[in-house]
Each structure stands twice: as structure tokens, then as C-alpha cells.
Amino acid sequence: MNIGKVLYATAFVSSMVGTSISANAADLPQSVPYLKAPIAYAPAPFNWTGLYVGGNLGAGWSQGNITDSFFGLNYSNPSNNAAFLGGGQVGANYQMGIFVAGVEGDFDWLANNQNSGPGTAVAGTTLQASSNDRWVTTLAARFGVAVDRVLFYAKGGGGWVGNGNFTITNVPTGASASYSNGNTNSGWLAGGGVEWAFARNWSVRLEYDYLGLNNQSFVIPATFPVAALAGDTFSTRNRDVQMATVGLNYHFNWGGY
To answer: Is residue 69 part of a domain?
Structure first.
């Protein structure tokens, strides 16, 4: 056997096979680079932790009875006299899971000028008693449950009402006498509401509060124009102020998102 011919035939076959493989590889589609999709992150839930400040407006209703010790008369104040209420609030929240605890102080001006009892016949004349509320301030703890940007809460604490002077008016003559008893009355507060954070630092709220006030007493001096009332003691009882307001708060959010 001729060795040279064998080697030549082997080389020729190898070159043909290689050419065929290269041609087939050229016919294959080119590989496409793999593009990795970006990771999608769910937005963090809203966090109510932080300081806030805001304003509110709405309506207030004042009710109570005024009685006297001489005649046992009852000067009942109307319970359906709504008065404009407006002011501001400042507070702080701390969120733990879905629970939110905080404290809030409010100060509101109450345009209550209709809290006068009807005229009552006394000692040959007609008398009218009045004690109008001028401002309301409260300090209360808040406890709530957060559903992301919505907060349902209750509040409880105390409140103070600034009164106009207690006034007795002799209706036929127009003569009146006013008496001051510190011009401030205090009591307990209970209420609740719902708040919605519609933007990163802003929220709106609807709230109802009930302020139950303490009783007060006033003694008519001897200088009052109706002598029969000198020394008579007038007492305010079952007093309360109900308030319904809408508020807007700005949150500083030290807790962030």
C-alpha cells in the first residue's frame, strides 16, 4: 500500500468534512443577547408616624339648662342652634403595624350668640338668662387603625370653653346684669373620625366630638334691678357642646414611607 496516497486521501476527507460543518454552522440563526427584565418593587405602605399641623371648620351645637334657687324655674337653652366653628389643630402620631397612637390639641372659635333661654315670668316681670360660648380648646389622645392611606380613629381627653359673661336681662325694661365666673368652663371630651392621606404630606379628615361641661353657679347681687332676685342662685347644668368638622392636615412624616 502506498502510504503517501493514504495520507493524502485522509487529509482530503478531513478538509471536506470541516468545510461541510462550517457551511452548516453559517446557515444557523445568530444567537440573540438575553435581556433581563427589571425587578418590579411594590410601593411601601403609607406611614402615619410624624408631626402634623392643620386647620378645620364646621359647626357646633351648645345645650344646657339654667335653673334658679328662689323660684325653681328652668331656663332651657335651645339644642338645635348651630353656630359656625373654625380654628386649627396640631398633633403627633406613631404607627405600630396597623395601629396608630397619638395626641392632638385643637383651638376653635365658636360664633355662638343664640344660647339664650326664653323669657320667663318672674316677680312681676319677664327675665331672660344667657351664657354664650365663645371659644373651644381640647387636648386628647387618639387611637386608630390604619388601612394604608385611610385612618379610622377615636379620641378622648378634656376640653375648655370660654364663655361670655352670664347675663340676666329684664326683658320689658332692657336692663341687664352680667357676672363673670372665670369665663372658662372645663369638661371631658370623646369623639372620632376618619382621615385620608390623599398625597405624600397632605390629608383630609371628618370628625365628630362631644364635650361634656361641668356645672356652674352664679349668685345675683343686691344691686340687680329686680330686687326680688337679690341673692338668687342661678346654675347651669347638663351643659354640652357637640362639634362636627372637616379638617386639612400637613404631615412632616419623620417616619416616611
So the answer is: yes
Per the structure, the complete domain to which residue 64 belongs is given by: 50-251
Distance CA 15, CA 82 (A): 105
Average pLDDT of the residues in 18-43: 57
Query: For residue 231, what is the DSSP state?
Result: T
The continuous run of DSSP H or E covering 26 comes out as helix 3-27
Confidence band, pLDDT 50/70/90 cuts, at residue 235: confident
Q: What is the pLDDT of residue 215?
A: 80
- pLDDT band at residue 7, thresholds of 50, 70 and 90? very low
Cα gap 151→93, rounded to integer Å: 11
- The answer to whether residue 121 sits within a structural domain is yes
Q: What is the pTM of this model?
A: 0.72
Question: Contact 164/110 with Cβ under 8 angstroms?
Answer: no
A 10 A CB-CB count for 15 gives 10
Residues in the chain: 257
Cα end-to-end distance, the chain, whole Å = 88
- Asked whether residue 37 is assigned to any structural domain, the reply reads no
pLDDT tens readout for residues 59-105: 988 777 777 788 777 766 555 567 889 999 999 999 999 999 999 99
Q: Is 214 domain-assigned? A: yes
Phi and psi torsions of 46, nearest 5°? -65, 140
3-state DSSP assignment of residue 244: strand
Number of structural domains (the chain) is 1
Task: For residue 90, give the C-alpha cell.
Answer: 396640631
CATH of the domain at 218: 2.40.160.20
Helices (H), ranges, the chain:
3-27
